[in-house]
Design goal:
Layout: E1 4-10, E2 18-22, E3 27-31, H1 38-46, E4 53-58, E5 61-62, E6 73-77, H2 88-98, H3 103-117, H4 132-146, E7 150-154, H5 162-178, E8 182-187, H6 190-196, E9 199-204, E10 207-213, H7 214-219, H8 224-229, E11 236-245, E12 248-253, E13 260-262, H9 265-270, E14 278-283, E15 288-290, E16 303-314, E17 317-323, E18 328-333, E19 344-350, E20 356-359
Parallel strand pairs: 3-8, 3-9, 6-7, 7-8
Antiparallel strand pairs: 1-2, 1-4, 4-5, 9-10, 11-12, 11-14, 12-13, 14-20, 15-19, 16-17, 16-19, 17-18
Helix pairs in contact: 2-3, 2-4, 3-4
Length: about 375
């Protein structure tokens, strides 16, 4: 239907130009913290914000000067509110009538979309009577009845309860499955990007830091900036140094911390030039667990002692908030189920095969 390309595009006060290509019929998530201007990307594509330089292309057509109404784009934002004095049906029909569609086609499209989104009972009711969840689903329906070539979603469900937000994401995923449209979804929430599991572009300070499938970014963040942002909770990052010992390369936590662990064999080969230099060891909360073998006097090689400051049960597991003496960490444990058990000192084990080392000076991941 449409490839969206931004070539050397910048807008407003940003000092960086953006190069990004969203392929025909692709579902792409643009993700970044608050202030990373992800909304501006969607507004540029929609024509609601002007590029100060660069080209915005739909397929091979430059659209910088094309009016928003002529771009064949459907946009839904978190602050969408339907016209309160119109019925839901009229809210959905207004864009089609502007496009000179026949009444029979208008009724057919609205009926199909209302059925898909469960809005049949609200069609004849006043939009002023809708809940916030229903208002946003009307906004989604209004975009869908137009059947645009490009859908743009700017954190539409971020203010809803988790169950309603999950339903909204599910409807957008189904929309992509049954349509041939290109979809760009902007979010400041890494968990939401992971939930979609699609190609994800991480934007930090107007710079694309990583562009990959969401799980690949989670498993192997390109640098410290991505590692700090992308995850729920985010990756544990522990500053330290590397030492060459007889048995191999060992990571030692800075600041008199308790973590001193040998690197995996494949990691040791990659970091020889960083021995003696400051590095950062990164590992996800799910890759650190209570070392149950330590209670039997069989402490593992990648084991260290830490204070459990508090425990938060999370259904099938428990988030343990730890203090090594130098740094705060989180462990998502499957072995601990008590909430009021803070104050214990326990032995923990890192799955080093899943851990990463970052160059502290450049920030880049080196393993």
């Amino acid at each position: 239907m449409a490839t969206v390309t931004l070539k050397d595009v910048s807008a407003g006060a940003t000092q960086h130009s953006l190069n990004l290509a969203i392929h025909d019929r692709e579902f792409a998530v643009v993700c970044g913290p608050v202030g990373s201007r992800i909304s501006s990307i969607l507004r540029l594509v929609a024509g609601l914000e002007d590029a100060s330089q660069g080209d915005i292309l739909f397929d091979d057509r430059r659209v910088n000067e094309v009016a928003p109404k002529d771009r064949d784009v459907g946009l839904l934002t978190r602050d969408y509110v339907p016209y309160p004095r119109l019925s839901v049906f009229e809210n959905l029909a207004i864009g089609l009538r502007r496009g000179k569609f026949a009444e029979a086609e208008i009724k057919k499209r609205i009926s199909a979309v209302a059925t898909a989104l469960g809005l049949e009972a609200q069609l004849e009711g006043d939009a002023s009577e809708l809940s916030r969840e229903q208002q946003l689903f009307v906004g989604l329906a209004r975009a869908m009845v137009r059947q645009p070539k490009i859908y743009l979603f700017d954190e539409p469900f971020s203010d809803l309860e988790p169950a309603a937000a999950r339903r909204g994401r599910a409807e957008i995923a189904k929309l992509h499955q049954r349509s041939s449209a290109t979809i760009i979804y902007a979010t400041t929430c890494p968990a939401e990007a992971l939930a979609f599991g699609q190609r994800t572009v991480v934007l930090l300070d107007d710079v694309v830091e990583q562009d990959a499938v969401a799980k690949n970014i989670y498993d192997a963040p390109a640098n410290l900036a991505v590692a700090r942002f992308f995850g729920d909770p985010s990756m544990n990052l522990v500053p330290g140094t590397l030492k060459q010992e007889r048995t191999g390369v060992v990571f030692s936590e800075a600041g008199d911390g308790t973590i001193s662990v040998p690197l995996a064999a494949n990691q040791s080969v990659a970091v020889n030039d960083l021995v003696g230099k400051p590095v950062v060891l990164g590992f996800h909360p799910g890759d650190i667990e209570i070392d149950s073998a330590a209670t039997e006097g069989k402490q593992g090689l990648a084991s260290f002692r830490a204070l459990v400051e508090r425990a938060e049960p999370k259904g099938s597991g428990t988030d343990l908030y730890l203090q090594t003496g130098a740094h705060a960490l989180i462990a998502s444990s499957q072995l601990w189920g008590e909430s009021g058990a803070g104050g214990h000192r326990l032995q923990f084990r890192i799955t080093m095969e899943k851990a990463h080392l970052f160059d502290a000076e450049t920030g880049r991941r080196v393993t």
